[in-house]
Amino acid sequence: KQEVTQIPAALSVPEGENLVLNCSFTDSAIYNLQWFRQDPGKGLTSLLLIQSSQREQTSGRLNASLDKSSGRSTLYIAASQPGDSATYLCAEMDSSYKLIFGSGTRLLVRP
Amino acid sequence: DGGITQSPKYLFRKEGQNVTLSCEQNLNHDAMYWYRQDPGQGLRLIYYSQIVNDFQKGDIAEGYSVSREKKESFPLTVTSAQKNPTAFYLCASSRSRQANYGYTFGSGTRLTVV
């Protein structure tokens, strides 16, 4: 059974710091890797999608990388702000086009 | 604006009752999905449908049922056979079988057993 793991489970940083969230997956044949943001009690907002043939994607202060050979993805957040506080979920799309999710990293950016 | 609408936002179920969660999308997506989220955990797939009149079980389908009679709608029924239904339920849609296209999620329904 394919698994997705996110480390750390929680992270607290001061405003302005650059940070990296980690995601590892066991499926060597993923179709894509997606990063989502979830605010408390809300649905998921898509942040970045990296196709299996790509190595990274960027959107504003966010940069996501994908290394299929090591089964790892990272989400880099530059110059963090209190508004970035949320839970960040990664998910890999398997060969049946289903998303398999990690448990998320809960981020708190302190003013 | 296109999107996914889930209703109700909050739902309370008595022991032994069946309840139905609504999910409607106007994105013209073929594929729709139901996920369950428990506190501090990721999302687990309940059921999914790649096309109208067809659906498949996900990882935790026991105690749940779905239908897909229209492209726009994918309701989820939580039956009395689901012994621990209290959770946050999320519906999503996407273009069917396209790896270069992401999922769009609804805002969720929080179900509580009373």
Most extensive interface: A-B, 27 and 31 residues
Query: What is the β-strand count of chain A?
Result: 11
DSSP, total strands of chain B: 11
State the helicity of chain A in percent bands. under 10%
Structural class of chain B: mainly beta
Radius of gyration of chain A using CA atoms only: 13 Å
Q: Multimeric state of these chains?
A: heterodimer
Proportion of residues in extended strands of chain B: over 45%
The largest β sheet of chain B comes out as: 7 strands, mixed
Question: What spatial form of chain B do the alpha-carbon principal axes imply?
Answer: globular
Per DSSP, what share of the residues of chain A sits in E-state strands of 2 or more residues? over 45%
Question: Brief overview, please?
Answer:
Chain A is 0% helix and 58% strand. Chain A has 111 residues and is mostly beta strands.
Molecular structure report:
In chain A, 0% of the residues lie in helices and 58% in strands. Chain A is mainly beta and 111 residues long. In chain A, the strands form two sheets. In chain A, strands 2, 4, 5, 9, 10 and 11 form a six-stranded mixed sheet that branches. The mean pLDDT of chain B is 93. Chain B is globular and about 40 Å long. In chain B, 0% of the residues lie in helices and 49% in strands. In chain B, 37% of the residues are buried. At the A-B interface, β4, β5, β9 and β10 of A face β4, β5, β9 and β10 of B.
Task: Set down the secondary structure blueprint.
The complex is a heterodimer of chains A (111) and B (114).
Chain A: E1 4-7, E2 10-14, E3 19-25, E4 32-38, E5 44-51, E6 56-59, E7 62-67, E8 72-77, E9 86-93, E10 99-101, E11 105-110
Parallel strand pairs in A: 2-11
Antiparallel strand pairs in A: 1-3, 3-8, 4-5, 4-9, 6-7, 7-8, 9-10, 9-11
Chain B: E1 4-7, E2 10-13, E3 19-25, E4 31-37, E5 43-51, E6 54-57, E7 64-66, E8 76-78, E9 87-94, E10 104-105, E11 109-113
Parallel strand pairs in B: 2-11
Antiparallel strand pairs in B: 1-3, 3-8, 4-5, 4-9, 5-6, 7-8, 9-10, 9-11
